């Protein structure tokens, strides 16, 4: 996987995000690399379009991010990582984007427009690529969810075609995957590998929601991008993996997070005799339970009342769960922190 912390390291103390390389030849080469080759026609001969060389896009983006901290480059890298490293790569790409927003919102490229009241449109349009069907979502649909030796590799698209939620591609001359074959793959794949896929999907969903919350706090709810199509796609993948994982005794998702059409048809793997983790939340006994409860509330409002601002407040509360009193005070009322420290007095050196 990529070195997220290394990529987040400032370029220099004087210019933490480096220069804007939009007009640098290397940036132009990256932009061209992400476009692939369009379909061409010479007389009666049609040359099909070619996908970008995503490994090359990944390489070029990683090189550029050493010289500049740029959301455009990070987004190109994230799209490439879906194709080269699947769900774990996508999670890492989102982690990089989230880190850039959190650590460098003011100086990160593309810069806010100082001549237009720090207009964030360039940044917002860049990040909207993450919720674009052609640029990102269809690649996630094609990312492998399970790969078993001797059986095959299957994606969310394969599952949806097998269960007739999607039609086969028009140019697909092969047979649609059988549900029983996909079921067999979920049974045969190493449980640790299946759990790792689930963890990557979970991480991707959490990061997508965090990014959306960060942007709403930075630019306001009216200017913030709608990343719900991205979250919806991740949820579909999550639900598709959850059922066979639970049936094999893997870590289960929280209650209320396994609803959805895809799970009505996805075949469950055969039980192994291991107890299935309960997804209920009957009582709150620790901070982890608090976070789970907040996640359930956030999920409810996102599904049932998408226009409500309450998820933003709940997400902020969730970030405060692990903090101590002074850290919470600094987050909620920075001006009151110094007064609280005076009242508390100096900390003991012993």
UniProtKB/TrEMBL annotation:
<dbReference type="Pfam" id="PF06812">
    <property type="entry name" value="ImpA_N"/>
</dbReference>
<dbReference type="InterPro" id="IPR010657">
    <property type="entry name" value="ImpA_N"/>
</dbReference>
<feature type="domain" description="ImpA N-terminal">
    <location>
        <begin position="9"/>
        <end position="131"/>
    </location>
</feature>
<protein>
    <submittedName>
        <fullName>Type VI secretion system protein TssA</fullName>
    </submittedName>
</protein>
<dbReference type="InterPro" id="IPR017740">
    <property type="entry name" value="TssA-like"/>
</dbReference>
């Amino acid at each position: 996987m990529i070195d997220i912390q290394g990529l987040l390291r400032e370029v220099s103390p004087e210019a933490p995000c480096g220069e804007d390389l939009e007009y640098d030849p290397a940036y132009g080469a990256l932009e061209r690399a992400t476009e692939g080759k369009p379909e061409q026609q010479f007389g009666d001969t049609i040359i099909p379009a070619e996908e970008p060389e995503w490994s090359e896009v990944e390489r070029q983006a990683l090189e550029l991010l050493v010289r500049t901290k740029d959301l455009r480059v990070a987004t190109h890298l994230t799209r490439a990582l879906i194709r080269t490293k699947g769900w774990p790569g996508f999670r890492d790409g989102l982690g990089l984007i989230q880190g850039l927003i959190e650590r460098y919102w003011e100086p990160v490229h593309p810069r806010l427009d100082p001549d237009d009241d720090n207009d964030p449109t360039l940044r917002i349009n860049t990040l909207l690529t993450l919720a674009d069907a052609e640029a990102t979502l269809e690649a996630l649909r094609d990312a492998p969810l399970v790969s078993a030796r001797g059986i095959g590799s299957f994606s969310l698209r394969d599952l949806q075609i097998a269960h007739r939620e999607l039609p086969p591609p028009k140019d697909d001359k092969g047979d649609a995957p059988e549900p029983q074959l996909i079921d067999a793959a979920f049974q045969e794949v190493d449980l640790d590998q299946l759990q790792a896929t689930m963890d990557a999907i979970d991480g991707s969903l959490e990061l997508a929601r965090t990014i959306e919350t960060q942007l709403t706090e930075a630019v306001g709810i009216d200017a913030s991008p709608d990343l719900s199509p991205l979250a919806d796609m991740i949820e579909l993948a999550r639900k598709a993996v959850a059922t066979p994982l639970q049936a094999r005794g893997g870590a289960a998702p929280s209650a209320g997070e396994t609803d959805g059409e895809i799970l009505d048809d996805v075949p469950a793997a055969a039980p192994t005799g291991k107890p299935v983790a309960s997804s209920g939340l009957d009582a709150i006994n620790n901070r982890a339970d608090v976070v789970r409860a907040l996640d359930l509330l956030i999920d409810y409002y996102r599904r049932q009342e998408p226009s409500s601002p309450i998820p933003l407040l709940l997400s902020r509360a969730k970030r405060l769960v692990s903090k101590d009193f002074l850290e919470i005070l600094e987050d909620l009322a920075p001006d009151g922190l110094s007064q609280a420290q005076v009242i508390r007095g100096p900390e003991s050196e012993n």
